[in-house]
Amino acid sequence: MDEKEVVNLIEQTPENGSGIFELSYRDLVSLPSEIGSLKHLIKIILIGNRLMYLPEQIGNLTALKILNLNYNDLTSLPAEIGKLMNLEELHLYNNKLCSLPVELGKLTNLKELRLSGNQLRSLPAELGKLTKLKALSLEGNPLESPPQEVVKQGTQAVLAYLRELGKEERREWVSKLLVVGEGGVGKTSLLKRLLGEGFNPDQKTTHGLQIRTLTQPHPREANVEMCLNAWDFGGQYILHATHQFFLTKRSLFILVWNARHGWQHGKIYYWLDVIHARAPESTILIVATHTEDWPADLPYEEILSKYPQVCGRFSVSNERGTGIDVVKEAIQREAAELPLMGERCPAVWLNLAEEVRELRKTKAYIYPNELSEVIRENDVREEDKGILSTWLHDLGDILYFKDNPELSDIIILNPEWVASNISHMLEDAEIEKGLGIFRKEHMEAVWPNIEPPVRDVFLRLMEQFDLSFRTLEDKDISIVVERLSLNASESAKGYEEIWDARKGDNEIKMKFYLNTSLPPGIPTWFIARSHRFTTYKHWRYGALFADGKERKHLALVRAYDHERYLMLMVRGPAPHNFFVLLRDGLEVTLKRYPGLNVERKIPCPGHRGKDCDHEFAFDQLEKALEKKKMLIECPEALDDVSVAKMLFGLHWRTESNVITRIDELEEKVITGQENILTEFGELKELTQREFLRLFNAQQRLVESHCPNVFAVLPKEERGWLKNIFGQKMVMQLYCQAPGEWHPTVEGGRYEIKQPAEFFKDTEPYILKLAKVIKYAAPVAGAAAGLYAGPIGAVMGAEFGKKLAGQVKLMEELAKKLGDEREITAGGLLGDIGKVGRVEEAEGAALRALRKLLDEVDPKQNWGGLKKILTPEGHYLWLCSEHAEEYRR
Asked: Structure pTM?
């Protein structure tokens, strides 16, 4: 559509019309200035064009409330946009914006600002004046100000940061220097030389972690001293998994090796792989020590070709002090380029951080009320306290797990103290001899100088870091996974017989090929993370899991270090649900290494009863589904294989197949066959969990997180009138335990006073929810209490009747709300691939829901539901009984 056609359309737009001007997906390159004549407009929608700029005349449209410019090519916005004083929604998703005009801060009625998918590095401090802003999306921008530690906390955190930045800002010249390498290569001696200290030939090996402060002049900024917190890590292999939690992104690394022993002995490639996997954007300096008598022979060109983040190689003699000045110059040069060096920061926030760092000199830990007092003394607003404490945690200044009930009453100020004490436990001879068994009575021997209550904190910290777990039978016994035997025959004896006995069952298998050798903590972190499924058959490179006491399904995870892959297999009558659950946990574990490249493969199901060695790449099968290619050729047998069958239950596009199968099973459940009941229950749980996964991103945000499984019911629960808005409605919140959804027992039932307004934003969501909540109801003929869980056991038969009645009313509501095509099998999760648009729809629904809940339940009791982040990375709102399952 050319500009002339647009002008004609503008001229033909009546002043007494709808007030809506929409030209989406018309290939518009520019918007003519004549648009400024349509002063009556309240909504402009120009999605999916090629607009590179907006005319200044856009500022004439002072009645405008909604401006949607998603999916264009805008690189900037005119200052005149600040004249749109009535604007409530500004959508700029997926453009090419590099900056924003400060005039946006004048849009004081703005409630939604969508900026995801642009090229913004900073936001103007003036945005902090937008007091009515409830939703600010910033995903997919390379933001430095505000930093990601603030952005991830949501809209109110960003506004708080910008508000304080607008009052007074300071620049912080502080960052991290991480010194790593094998044990005994001279890391501590090198750091001492850099600090101007002498050489000690009897220097003891570092155990755990030591932190020193290295001050260096900025190479370009006059009179500026850079402060580098230099972290000197012990090199013993058993400690490597612990160190990963302190190897932060955006830091400078020094990789040290001993020239006398050679670069192979220094495991240069291993360390480069670990650094790249954990902090792929960080700069690395390689320093050879002991060069007084040995040349630093290193395949440097080969290293550079594979690891471009390496920025120099150096040779030093810690004994003689030669080469140290050259390393200092390199540190100054590279430290000056670190993203955090010279970062703009609100002065009041920086003052707080400096005060906390000062406390560290005299205290290893404090309590939350003490931190609150420090925050209050720094004139931080009461409502910003939580934001500041989370920011300090994410920066690494403190360790504060406020969402963990067992760790929320203590704040660790000194990570060096934590790492050193954990290393004492990992290196304990008794634990090594016991193949990882750590008994509570042994705490005093391991941590003699720590008060008994704090010893418990250390044990809980190890669980938080997935370094250990408490046994289900005896909470006084923990398993330290980094001390498990390397051999299955020692700590997992008999697992093969148990596994092989299920050979004839249905099986799902996936391999995870890595681009490096297994990094520290893989798969041991996953073994600890999945401990609620333990069979106590585990070793350093594998484990056997079961989905419950009945062991209907078994899972085996194995890691092959030399071959660089992991394998996850599940066997049982309906293995899809347990497999997806464990796979999610494994994926969460692998994500701790953002630089790790993982290729997932699924074995060919075989042909005419014969096995096949071919493995299909998982992403190749995904592409086939997206292009609706239902068959793919196996290159080994040259036979076609069903893509949907291989991905059944493993990919959202097979959802229609899963729901069809559930409906088939529902008709057969009355027969009471065990295998049918099992498959029905497993697929139902899988569908409910996958539905909730859609909203995982929104549940992370403070402004939209809330229980999102509920039934909308007539107040008397006796049926819907023809005009549903002519009767009183209530909302009943549900516990979200997958496979066991149920109404809250105490509270959680609220009147919807303005149903028309509520349904405006939530109707599409309710239609989808109605389809899934259907599977919460007990099925006629099924065993009593089978779908009721712990709550059903308490409430008995009345529970089933109540649940079935509410589900039926939700289904009737869905029929009345609109065309049932919205909730057919293909429509439940079908929008998930439309990135951006579905995110906005999800956000709008959850914000409308949160608004209602805040109005009717300002204390956020929410029927006693608590938000739980499961080890598999799912957010669930659970009743106290179901939440307890994740607190063992």
From this structure: 0.85
